[in-house]
Amino acid sequence: MRTDERIALAMAELLRRQGYAATGINQLARAAGAPTGSIYHHFKGGKREVAAAALRQTGAAYIQLLPLLLDPHPDLATGVEAAFAAAARDMESTGWANMCPVGVVTAEIADVEPELREIAAEVMQVWVEEGSRYLAGRGLSEQEAHTVIHALLAALEGAFVLARGMRSAEPFLAAGRTLAVYVGALEAAEAAAGPAATAGAAGPAGPGPATGTGRPPTAGRA
Amino acid sequence: MRTDERIALAMAELLRRQGYAATGINQLARAAGAPTGSIYHHFKGGKREVAAAALRQTGAAYIQLLPLLLDPHPDLATGVEAAFAAAARDMESTGWANMCPVGVVTAEIADVEPELREIAAEVMQVWVEEGSRYLAGRGLSEQEAHTVIHALLAALEGAFVLARGMRSAEPFLAAGRTLAVYVGALEAAEAAAGPAATAGAAGPAGPGPATGTGRPPTAGRA
DNA sequence: GTCTATACTCTGATAGAC
DNA sequence: GTCTATCAGAGTATAGAC
Q1: Which of A145, B25, B29, B127 has its CA 20 to 30 A from that of B174?
Q2: Could you give the domains of chain A?
Q3: How many angstroms from the chain centroid is the CA of residue A27?
């Protein structure tokens, strides 16, 4: 692996464990196996530029997990619930430390480091765009895909925080269940209304398992 | 206001804007209007002890908002949606900076400051207990109250993070809508099953507005 | 490109006068 | 209890040999 890649990767790992302010250049150099001089050679902007590269890198990697986790499940609802359970297992196996660096940095220093906040915003915007495009491809309307991806990302980042504090999988499981129910109701409604409009890659995609009431959850609430 | 209260309050304010590591003692002294010596007089544990006091203080204050925000609404569903909308407005009015200090500190330094993580865990545990007790008092079963409060807290903390990064109210609105739909379905189910068991403080508490299908969202999913 | 040595600033914390 | 002066150490960043 190239040196600059090693440095950015080490930074991402440190960011999600201790945040930006608590991460020092010397510590980063040790973790990356490179002297401090190399860091400033590859990243003339110093610590901030390394963090920026780390955020972009992990942001791009994270959104690829969405199709990877949801594609195997024929209906979105069970896929969402399984994805949250998988996130819980992953975090528990790392001692409740493996949070998302983008979330950590945004929470920590959004106001004091405007440049990093801007990058976090770009990353999140990509999450929303690619995520809602994927969900639309799975049969949700554009508007509902937009709502679901926002709620999903919020629930995920928040579950990271709560699970990390309480050292419990329950935030993930509860968030996964409520979202799965919401998405399941949407899917049932779309299937009942017009399954012809969106010929997704999934096979039969009939109504849910034993829950096919075909009732949308009060589409236009507010 | 007493000096130690002023110090803890100033710390809470700094914590939610820049996190723990980036907040210095001198900055805290300036913000609290007290010299550094006073800080160590009132908090012999130094910076860490001040942060601990700030977390406990704001944690206790935040959970009181739950009944305050939900009591005015006869059904939980609209109350939840309104509460998330209120949080979005509050955050927007402060330039997307007013995050929850407990969430910030937990995300930032849960692993590097075990003592503060422990305190955050205690605060969150109180949130879960008092929150689920309140929700049970509003008619949810104990098990569902437990699930809803976990999902609600996760969605809230996560919405803070996303909204702060993207400077958008949408994470709050989307999270509020999905949770409101979930809670609304629960309420409709309970009302249809047996409205006698839980004689809450609410009045008629009939089925939801124009959505009274009385269909539980697949109670025992997993 | 890699690595060492160092300059300069700021940190948390303390001692002690008032 | 309040406040000032100061310490020892860690922080980022840089200069320059290899």
Answers
A1: B127
A2: 3-56 (1.10.10), 64-193 (1.10.357.10)
A3: 27
Which residues lie closer than 8 Å to A15 by C-beta, 6 or more apart?
A: A23, A51, A54, A55, A101, A104, A105
Q: Cα separation of A89 and B51, whole Å?
A: 30
Please report which helix (H) or strand (E) contains residue B91, including its range. Answer: helix B76-93
How many other C-beta atoms lie within 10 A of the C-beta of residue B37? 9
What's the pLDDT score for residue B190?
A: 84
- Residue B24 falls in which region: left (phi positive, over 0), alpha (psi -120 to 50) or beta: beta
Q: Which of residues 32-71 of A touch strand D (CB under 7 A)?
A: 36-37, 40, 44, 46-48
How far is residue B180's CA from residue A182's CA, in Å, rounded to a whole number? 10
Burial class (CB in 10 A: 0-12, 13-18, 19+), B196: exposed
Using CB atoms and an 8 Å cut-off, which of residues 47-76 of chain B contact chain A? none
Q: What is the block-wise mean pLDDT of chain B (222 residues), using blocks of 10 residues? A: 95 97 97 96 97 98 98 97 98 94 97 96 98 97 98 98 98 98 94 64 38 40 38
* DSSP 8-state secondary structure symbol assigned to residue B33: T
Whole-number Å distance between alpha carbons of B84 and A179 = 16
The span from the CA of B82 to the CA of B84, in Å, is 5
Sequence letter at residue B6: R
Torsion-angle region of residue A168: left (phi > 0), alpha (psi -120 to 50) or beta? beta
Q: Could you give the CA distance from residue B200 to residue B187 in angstroms, rounded to a whole number?
A: 12
**Amino acid at the residue A6:** R
Residues B188/B215, Cβ–Cβ less than 8 Å:
yes
A:193-222 residues touching chain B, CB 8 A cutoff: 208, 210-211, 213, 215, 217-218, 221-222
Residues lying close to strand C (Cβ under 7 A), chosen from 13-52 of chain B, are 23-27, 36-37, 40, 46-48
Report the C-alpha gap between A49 and A70 in whole angstroms. 33
Q: What angle, rounded to 10 degrees, do the helices at B114-137 and B101-109 form? A: 140
Q: How many residues does chain B have?
A: 222
